[in-house]
Amino acid sequence: MASKKILVVDDELESVKLVGLMLQRQGYEIAAAQTGAQALEKALSENPDLVILDIMMPDMDGYEVCRRLRASPDTADLPIIMFTAKTQVDEKVAGFQAGADDYLTKPIHPDELASHVEAVLLRSARRQTEGPPPVSARIFGFLGSKGGVGTTTLAVNTAVALAQGPAQGKKVLLAELRPGLATAAMQLGLRRHGALAHLLDQPVEQLDARTVEAQLDEHSSGVLVLSGQVEPPGVATLILPSHAETIVRHLGAMVDYVLLDLGVGLDEPNRRVLLGCYQAVVPVEPQRVALALAQALLGELTGSLKLARHRVKAVLINKAPAATTFTKETVEGVLQHDLAGVITPAPDLAFQAAERGVPMVMVQPTSLVAQQFRTFAEYLVDA
């Protein structure tokens, strides 16, 4: 069997030689790069089995190299270990969010380095041989351009409207994959919060269908729920890209419809998950700054992420009456994107729903806003 090839990326030649020597003694073949640009080039030309990547480099830091490797179809699944002198928690978090599979700090004992390399290669081999579980569900990713626009409220009410309407008799699941400040379980009046953290605490190779299913709760509407973490980002357990992908694959094999509350931002876990979504749903607030942020997010989804425009749905959410209102046509003109739905203001109903822990579509099923949620749910099924 041919030895595995490892690409070592570090701007310091001595570090490249030292790491290379450690790994050569373990039987690995070594390729080397001293800049970010060289790393991207050799990741294609050398066809390595794994990359060991420094962060501090003059032309392009390791975070950006990692993001670019993940963004390319040719290297998206390439195992990456960040190996750096940066030891702060926020630096490690940034590494994992950029798409790293592991994060090691210098200095390190050769045996420890070898054990981490072996473990990452083994996980990669298992994913390739076992393959993902078959996904039968339509998966919708709800992603906000900023906090407070109604992403969770839209996901919760759409899920309930689906379960009680066009998807009645089928299985609908709502999962909170946002990295903290998750409130869907509260909006649904569920007692258990933070079930996601139990999955994130386990090695990704141990996440099977039974383990994931054990963390689901069923709402009275029939919606299955994987509750997220209420702790703030930085305190909540970090969502790694590999965990996000694996959890979503298992969920997609269990039910007919999966609605993902992804929170805010296009970090690496969200990028990976959105690529597998049937559609991405972006709630939009009719306010100048919010529209500018939504326009930028829509541009990234159809630009750098290369989602087809018909897979990206914008929904206008009016949270409160305003003296100056944006028409549907005005918003579409600003966004340069059609709206798939419009939710009119219902502040009293929204307050009542939040206080009772009951979705708006269940508090007043005959209200205009409930009908608008149902209309959007029907649109998703028919789209």
Description:
- The chain is of the alpha/beta class.
- The chain folds into two domains: 5-130, Response regulator (Rossmann fold); 138-382, 3-Layer(aba) Sandwich (Rossmann fold).
- It is 43% helix and 17% strand.
- It has 16 helices and 13 strands.
- It has helices at residues 13-24, 36-45, 62-71, 89-98, 110-130, 151-164, 184-187, 195-200, 209-213, 241-254, 268-275, 288-302, 328-335, 347-356, 360-363, 368-382; strands at residues 5-9, 29-33, 50-53, 80-84, 102-105, 138-144, 172-176, 217-218, 224-226, 257-264, 279-284, 312-317, 339-343.
- An eight-stranded mixed beta sheet has the order 8-9-7-10-6-11-12-13, sandwiched between helices. A five-stranded parallel beta sheet has the order 2-1-3-4-5, sandwiched between helices.
- α12 links the parallel β11 and β12.
- α2 (36-45) runs parallel beside α3 (62-71) and α10 (241-254) runs parallel beside α11.
Quick summary of this structure?
With 383 residues, this protein is of the alpha/beta class. The protein has helices at 13-24, 36-45, 62-71, 89-98, 110-130, 151-164, 184-187, 195-200, 209-213, 241-254, 268-275, 288-302, 328-335, 347-356, 360-363, 368-382, and strands at residues 5-9, 29-33, 50-53, 80-84, 102-105, 138-144, 172-176, 217-218, 224-226, 257-264, 279-284, 312-317, 339-343. The chain is elongated, with a radius of gyration of 22 Å.
Q: Mean pLDDT across all residues, rounded?
A: 92
Structural class, from secondary structure content? alpha/beta
CATH architecture of the largest domain, please? 3-Layer(aba) Sandwich
- The CA-CA distance between the termini, in Å, is 49 Å
Question: Strand arrangement, largest sheet?
Answer: 8-9-7-10-6-11-12-13
- Helical content (DSSP H or I, runs of 4+): 40-55%
Number of DSSP strand runs = 13
What characterizes the major β-sheet?
8 strands, mixed
CATH topology of the largest domain: Rossmann fold
Number of domains: 2
**Number of discrete helical segments:** 16
Q: How much strand?
A: 15-25%
SSE pattern:
EHEHEHEHEHEHEHHHEEHEHEHEHEHHH
What's the CATH H-level homologous superfamily of the largest domain? P-loop containing nucleotide triphosphate hydrolases
CATH class placement of the largest domain = Alpha Beta
Shape: elongated
What's the Cα radius of gyration? 22 Å
